[in-house]
Design brief:
CATH class: Alpha Beta
Strand order of the largest sheet: 7-8-9-6-5-4-3-2-1-10-11-12
Shape: globular
CATH architecture: Alpha-Beta Barrel
Bound molecules: S-adenosylmethionine, iron/sulfur cluster
Helix content: 25-40%
Oligomer: single chain
Order of helices and strands: EHEHEHEHHEHEHEEEEEEHHHH
Number of strands: 12
Length: 353
């Protein structure tokens, strides 16, 4: 079998990989990997990268600190051999990383991996076709409102909503579908957009998912009373469009699925604050500089980049990953209190959402 120079050969699997399963202290296997490719972003969403903190003096990672595409590819291959089935590319804003489609092409080589990407949609119109050609399977687009006044207030860089909607249309057109739309709901800021968003995407084939505002990082001013519980969101939608709960697609699916009774599609609710789903959490996160985190609310990670750059073998890196996962006991959302919310946690834009 021929491999391109930037592609290390995949281990022989006879087309039917049977990866080893590592489980943590709560019996949770390692199944998903979220890879942040940059800590930079062209938005300043108030709940993620507030301008007062991420201003022009903010020290983002330097280019040489970022994992190269070759390093990301190698680590992904090693993770895959430890049982990873899904890879989500994220950030910061992943589409601001130059030539991201090259990385997608490299990762898509592993056809058994479910390869997806989360984006703010600002550059999607230009990039969707290249991403699809490179082998991306689906895309998730974050969108918090349909009216420009609310959307711009949330992205805080006056980015117009039409461009994101055009990006979603283009993703759909090129076959990065079904497109999932993530809407973070913050009390007093965009609750009024919930029903209009449901109405807009109902019947479109796209899947709108509502996310409870979370206390990720330590800079977004989170307070419990700014969270709109999923139960309340479901009631708002049901009052306009009758919905009923659906079966999960698989164990550990983060979004609770509901369908419209008139058959015009489904919506999802991600209730990380009011109904913690740590019990089934199979996600690891790799930061843009190669730190491995086992929880979105972690305070520290494990440095894999140094291993990679010090020429550790695949087996040594795999062993480091296994050691981290074996002792994992994370359950932050189950034990969240006003006190834990104040911990100095790693920022979402760094760890990757
Ligand atoms: N920039 C890309 C985007 O916005 O889609 C990818 C990275 S972003 C950190 C990933 C996801 O995290 C987005 O859907 C975003 O809305 C969500 N997110 C960021 N901060 C959040 C918070 N405090 N609570 C809930 N979701 C949050
Ligand atoms: Fe950027 Fe995404 Fe964070 Fe918004 S949520 S600031 S788009 S990384
Ligand atoms: Fe997983 Fe941590 Fe979120 Fe719980 S709090 S679901 S362990 S990422």
């Amino acid at each position: 079998m021929q491999t391109r120079p930037d592609q290390a050969p995949a281990p022989a699997t006879n087309g039917n990989p049977s990866p080893s399963t590592i489980v943590d202290t709560r019996g949770r296997p390692l199944r998903d990997l979220r890879i942040s490719v940059t800590d930079r972003c062209n938005f300043r969403c108030t709940y993620c990268m507030p301008k007062e903190v991420f201003g022009k003096d903010f020290q983002f990672l330097e280019r040489e600190q970022l994992l190269t595409f070759g390093e990301i590819h190698r680590l992904t291959r090693i993770f895959r051999d430890q049982g990873i089935e899904k890879v989500r590319i994220t950030g910061g804003e992943p589409l601001v990383r130059r030539k991201l489609e090259r990385l997608i092409e490299m990762l898509a080589y592993h056809q058994d991996l479910d390869l997806t990407l989360t984006t703010n949609g600002s550059l999607l119109k230009q990039k969707a076709a290249d991403l699809k050609t490179a082998g991306l399977k689906r895309v998730t687009v974050s969108l918090d409102a349909l009216d420009n006044e609310t959307f711009m207030k949330m992205n805080d860089v006056d980015f117009p909503v039409e461009k994101v909607l055009e990006g979603i249309d283009e993703a759909d057109r090129v076959g990065l579908a079904p497109v999932k739309i993530n809407m973070v709901v913050k009390r007093g800021v965009n609750e009024h957009s919930v029903v209009p968003m449901a109405k807009y995407f109902k019947g479109s084939g796209h899947i709108l998912r509502f996310i409870e505002f979370m206390d990720v990082g330590s800079t977004n001013g989170w307070k419990m009373d700014t969270v709109v519980p999923s139960r309340e969101l479901a009631a708002m939608i049901a009052a306009e469009f009758p919905i009923e709960p659906m079966e999960a697609n698989y164990r550990g699916e983060v979004a609770e699925r509901w369908r419209y009774l008139d058959g015009s599609g489904e919506v999802g609710f991600i209730s990380s604050v009011t109904q913690a789903f740590c019990r089934d959490c199979t996600r690891a996160r790799l930061s843009a500089e190669g730190q491995l985190f086992t929880c979105l609310f972690a305070t520290k990670g494990t440095d894999l980049r140094t291993l990679v750059r010090n020429e550790a073998s695949d087996d040594e890196i795999a062993e480091a990953i296994r050691r981290v996962w074996h002792v994992r006991a994370d359950n932050y959302s189950e034990i969240r209190t006003a006190e834990t919310a104040k911990l100095r946690k790693v920022e979402m834009s760094y760890i990757g959402g």
